[in-house]
Write a structure and sequence with these properties.
Blueprint (H helix, E strand, L loop, with lengths): L7 E2 L5 E3 L12 E5 L5 E6 L4 E7 L5 E6 L2 E7 L5 E6 L7 E5 L9 E6 L9 E7 L4 E5 L5 E7 L5 E5 L4 E2 L14 E2 L6 E2 L4 E3 L4 E2 L36 H7 L7 H15 L24 H27 L7 H10 L20 H10 L4 H17 L2 H16 L1
Antiparallel strand pairs: 1-2, 3-4, 4-5, 5-6, 6-7, 7-8, 8-9, 9-10, 10-11, 11-12, 12-13, 13-14, 14-15, 16-17, 17-18, 18-19
Length: 407
């Protein structure tokens, strides 16, 4: 209803009251408690009762969670992947995780072993399946699907049996899910590393630790495009990959993995990899220096620029409605290419502003004065003719090959 009665923040921008509360009840709320490093150390319900307590190591990885009188200790790899969990003072694992090594993915869970009866033996093995980002099902050692999971665009989880009938809770205490992150059953929030994400809000509950470098909306989640984009550690950013991996990656010793992840993500999020905005849209920028081999650079360059060029060509039809035909040769084609610094250099096709053909200039000078209606018609015809000539693909292929050779 637009009321802020169930929402408040402290002066550091951390939420101190946020709805919904227990079980997604919007008449209730949680009261997060933060330490001096803006880390979530406790969550209380609307009555002030403690729901969860957290403790962290020096890298801000959560190493203990206390809930319902049980303390869970988490042991991490140098890539921020949990390897083992123990409960209380036990010296044996309650859960153990095995991870994949797919380039560009931090959270590709292969399997989880669990001690189901507390006798110190991992007696249950469950395999995880994923789509590109999300955990979608859990299987036994025979490959039989035991439980399935689906998500809303912003991560609200739906649990289903193998036959897709709905379940209210997981029969296997499975908390690996949306975007390969772990969900806290106490709150329904996802622990991304540096921040906790609330899927029912579609937002973070505290400011971005890297400030506006992650975007001007300090609480926004993946620029509201969570189907095609994911967040690495709660540090969403569009800064150059080299800077991002030096400044934001928790373990600088694993820089190559970070660079691979950054490159893959930037292909879908249309962010600049090289930091050279050039006065134009971010979707036109590409980090040629981020690639060690020519073939990788070339293929990613083609993928990166193909959609923006197609969009720009479509926009030409709008441009031609406002320009006389005498401008089509220069302004129309220039609009299709966008800002002048593009792959191709001075090749004149797919690179810097291409020259209009002589017939376009002649036709423009003769028909332009007749009025905007004729100009609009002829302008659209000129655009269609230019696209049909295939200049765009040729320029893209030559431009990427030239630019990757020079980088």
């Amino acid at each position: 209803d637009g009321s802020s009665a169930l929402l408040s923040h402290d002066r550091a921008g951390n939420a101190t009251k946020t709805a919904p509360g227990m079980n997604g009840d919007w008449s209730k709320y949680y009261q997060p408690v933060w330490d001096g490093w803006n880390r979530l150390v406790e969550v209380k319900d609307e009555t002030g009762a403690s729901v969860q307590k957290n403790a962290y190591d020096g890298l801000s990885r959560r190493i203990t969670k206390e809930s319902g009188g049980t303390v869970t200790h988490t042991y991490w790899s140098d890539r921020w992947k949990p390897l083992e969990e123990r409960t209380g003072s036990s010296t044996t694992a309650a859960r153990s995780y095995l991870w994949g090594e797919r380039p560009g993915h931090r959270d590709e869970l292969i399997l989880r072993d669990r001690d189901t009866d507390g006798n110190g033996t991992l007696d249950e093995r469950r395999y995880a399946t994923m789509d590109y980002f999300n955990g979608t099902a859990v299987m036994n050692t025979s490959g039989t699907v035991l439980e399935r999971y689906a998500y809303s665009a912003f991560g609200i989880r739906r649990i289903m049996a193998a036959d897709f009938t709905r379940r209210s809770t997981s029969s296997y205490t499975w908390d690996f899910g949306f975007q390969g992150q772990f969900r806290d059953s106490e709150t329904g929030w996802y622990n991304y590393g540096y921040r906790f994400y609330v899927p029912l809000l579609g937002r973070w509950i505290n400011r971005d630790p890297i400030g506006v470098r992650g975007g001007v909306n300090l609480y926004g989640f993946t620029m509201n495009k969570s189907i095609n984009r994911n967040d690495r550690y709660g540090l969403w950013t569009c800064e150059p990959c080299a800077d991002q991996c030096n400044q934001c990656f928790p373990n600088p010793g694993d820089k190559e993995d970070c660079l691979a992840d950054c490159r893959n993500e930037k292909l879908s999020m249309n962010c600049s990899s090289d930091g050279d905005n050039d006065g134009g849209s971010e979707e036109w920028n590409f980090g040629f220096e981020d690639y060690s081999s020519w073939s990788d650079c070339y293929s990613e360059c083609i993928n990166h620029y193909r959609d923006p060029i197609a969009n720009a060509i479509g926009n030409l039809f709008v441009e031609s409605a406002n320009w006389g035909l005498s401008h089509v040769g220069n302004a129309g084609l220039n609009a299709a290419v966008g800002p002048t610094r593009r792959p191709g250099g001075n090749l004149g096709i797919g690179g810097t502003k291409p020259h209009a053909t002589s017939w376009q200039h002649k036709l423009g000078s003769r028909i332009g004065p007749w009025g905007s209606r004729v100009g609009r018609f002829a302008g659209r015809a000129a655009v269609v003719t230019t696209v049909a000539d295939g200049f765009w693909d040729i320029g893209l292929f030559i431009g990427c090959a030239y630019a990757c050779s020079e980088s």
